Amino acid sequence: MRTALLLVLAACALLAVNGAAGAPRATFYVAPNGVDGGPCSHADPCRSFDSAFRVASPGARVLVADGVYPKQTVNAVARGGAPIVFAPAPGAKVTIEDELNVYASHAEFADMTVSDWYVRDGATDLTFRRMKMQLFFIRSASNVRVLGGSVGGIDTSDAATIGSTYRSRVPSRKILIDGVSFHDVTRKDAPSGHVQCLFVQSVDGLVIRNSTFRHCDVFDVYVNNIDVGPVPRNMLFENDLFDRASDGGFYSLYVRNDPGDTIDGLVVRYSSFLQGAHFDPGSYAHSRVVGNVSPYTAAQCTKGILYSHNVFDAARCGPTDRRAPLGFVDPVEFRLGLRAGAVGIDAGDPKDTPRRDIRGRLRPQGKAPDAGAYENR
User: Fold this and answer.
1) How far apart are the first and last CA of the chain?
2) Which of 23, 36, 94, 171 is the right S-S partner for 112, CB 3.0 to 4.6 Å?
3) Is the pTM of this model over 0.90?
4) C-beta of residue 43 within 8 angstroms of C-beta of residue 65
5) Is 200 in a helix, a strand, or coil?
C-alpha cells in the first residue's frame, strides 16, 4: 500500500513538472499610445519598455506594437531567471528613433530598428537579435550577444564600440557577435575623424564570427584599449569577411600593441580578406593566425604569433603557409568564395578549424578544410 502511494505521488509530481514546462509564457504589451503604471496587458498596454520590463516575469514576452518610439531606457531590476524578450507584435514594424539604453540584465531585443543601443556598466545576459542600428556600445558589461542584423549607415566618424566604462578597470566580458553585417561607417561629415566599423577597446573574451565588414573608413576593426582600461585579451575572429578599408584606410583588421602591453589569446582563423590585417610588433601570448586567405607581405609577419595553413599572396609567415594567388571568385563584387582549383581548397588545418563555415556548411567537405571563410564544395 505504501509503495503504491509513493508511485502515485511521484506520478503527480511528474505531471506537475511537465505541465509547468509546457505552460505558455506570460505576454505583456507596449504601444505608442499606451500608459505607464498599468498592467501592460493587451487591453491596457504600457508606453515604455521600462514599465513593461518592471512588471514582466522571467521568461515573459513583451510584444511591441507597430510605430515609432522615442528614446527608451530599461533600468536594472533585482531579478534573475530567463530573459524577458522584447519583439514586434505579429506584422508590426518597430523603430526607436533615438537610443535604447540598457542598464538591465536578462533581456533580449529582437527585430527592431534603432538609432543605437548602449549596454551600461554591470549589465549581463543580454541578446540583440536581428536588430538594425547605426551604432552600439557595450561598456563593462558581460555575456552580451549580437546575433544577426546590421550595423552602419552613418557618416559622423562615430563607431560601434566594445570596452570598459570611462576610466574603469572592468573590461567587457564574454561578448559574442555572430552573423552581423557591418557596413558604410564613414567620416564624410567629420573628415579628420578616426573611424572604423568596430572599435574594440577593453575586453576579455570576444568572439566575432560569420560577420561581414564593408565600406568602413580607415579600418574595418580597430583593437586598442587607448590606455584607459585593461589590455584586450582572448579575442577570436573566425569565418569573417573583410573588405578593403575605404577613404585611404590602412588595414582591414588592426590590432595595436602598445609598449609594455601583452596581447594574450588573439586568434584569427578561416577568414577572407581583401586587405591584409596588421598586428603591431610587441608581446603576444597564446596567439595564432590560421587558415586565412589574405593579401600579406613579409613585413606583416609578427613575431610571437603562430602562423599556419594560411594562403597569402606575398608572404609565408609559417612553414605550412602557402604563397599563391588568393583565388577569390570575384573580389570586385565581394564574392570571396574560392574558385575551383584555388590553392586554398583543402589547405586548412584539420586539427584547428571551426565546425562550420560562414554559411553554416560543415567543415571539411574535402580532404581538409578550405582556407578562408567558405567551405567551397
Assistant:
1) 65
2) 94
3) yes
4) no
5) strand
